[in-house]
Amino acid sequence: MNPGPGLLDGRVAVVTGAANGLGRAYARRLAERGASVVVADLDEEGAQHVAAGIGREGGTAMAVPVDVGDGALVEAMATAAAARFGRIDILVNNAAIFLTVGMSRVPFDEISIAEWDRMMAVNVRGTWLACRAVVPHMRRQGYGKILNVSSDTALKGSPNRIHYVASKSAVLGFTRTLAAELGPSGIRVNAIAPGIVLSEPEPTEARYAQATAGQVLPAALVSDDLADTVVFLVSPASDPITGQVVAVNGGGYM
Ligand SMILES: NC(=O)c1ccc[n+]([C@@H]2O[C@H](COP(=O)([O-])OP(=O)(O)OC[C@H]3O[C@@H](n4cnc5c(N)ncnc54)[C@H](O)[C@@H]3O)[C@@H](O)[C@H]2O)c1
């Protein structure tokens, strides 16, 4: 899939968790396609670095520090985005407790209550808070695209991180329900469910085998694979699609 440059010209995109990993790849790709991008993250320095890099490459971006679990900060993020760019067309709810902000990988009864609650506060409440903050802008425009990031672990289960998998499962029901509520306002809400994405530039053979185990396609997923799907799902090319979950997982779960 190569939607081509300019597909998102004039659009304003907020990407949460865009200072690192996949969110950074999404921010860069959306900017390449013409969107003005709000790089929102808990990691303020990382967000500034990503926004500056986009600027150096000829794109438009601003960094906004945010904890998506904090309602006031999330409102401030949307206000800052609208103040700078005048509108908000796209929200990618990518921020999560996952790698950069890590989690315990232990049996279900060894997770602390505090860690369970923080997981839900960031991965689930954060998704809701960000939608709540940007939807008024989208409603005024009569159009908007929201893309929530789930995980294919939510489709097939995955041991020793039940709080994470439960949070990503919640994102699926959230997506379908919000799509039903916002469809009449012209706002589309979809989700992606990535499989294991290789972030190492030179993975060991063992790591490659682990990443592709269970896939029907032999190639491991890399961030570019996800970024092109993200562009499609936030662009007008996908306007008839809402309430859907797209598994980008090499056929690991069908
Ligand atoms: N990498 C994979 O293999 C994979 C697979 C399935 C799903 N995912 C999902 O994709 C998304 C990105 O994954 P990644 O691999 O880039 O992980 P990552 O941990 O590197 O990136 C997450 C980003 O979110 C930010 N963040 C964490 N808590 C935050 C908060 N409270 N407020 C604002 N920002 C916060 C982090 O600073 C980081 O920049 C996550 O939602 C993850 O669950 C990733």
UniProtKB/TrEMBL annotation:
Keyword Oxidoreductase: yes
GO terms classed as biological process: fatty acid elongation
Keyword field: Oxidoreductase
Keyword Oxidoreductase applies: yes
Gene3D superfamilies hit by this protein: NAD(P)-binding Rossmann-like Domain (3.40.50.720)
Molecular function GO labels: oxidoreductase activity, acting on the CH-OH group of donors, NAD or NADP as acceptor
PANTHER family per UniProt: 3-OXOACYL-[ACYL-CARRIER-PROTEIN] REDUCTASE, CHLOROPLASTIC, SHORT-CHAIN DEHYDROGENASES/REDUCTASES FAMILY MEMBER
Name assigned to this protein: 3-oxoacyl-[acyl-carrier protein] reductase
Organism whose genome encodes this protein: Pseudonocardia endophytica
